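Quick question, first post here. What does this chain look like in 3D?
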Amino acid sequence: MKTMRCVIPVILLSFIIHEGKAKPTAQIHFMGSVVEAGCWNDVGTLEIQCHNKEGIERYIIVENIVTPISSPHAMVKQDYLDEDKQLTVLRIVYD
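> Answer (accepted):
Ran it through. Tokens below.
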């Protein structure tokens, strides 16, 4: 039992030291698909309207979606799918 008490802190310490030296080398690539009916927004409002599975509309309040999110490693990109700017794709791009 005494040996186990000594081994666990050594393992944890070596893991912490290893993690402290690690540098991020991977990128996240997300590919998704639509699993519910589409959403739309009215230009000039802070709401995105969607349909859930029962067909009931829900309203999501959106704070200025044109402004990048506050993370230094990601930003929001907005692309309109139609001329009336009713259909929008929001992409979170991580660098």
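DSSP finds one helix and five strands in the chain.
The beta strands are 39-41, 47-51, 57-61, 74-80, 88-94.
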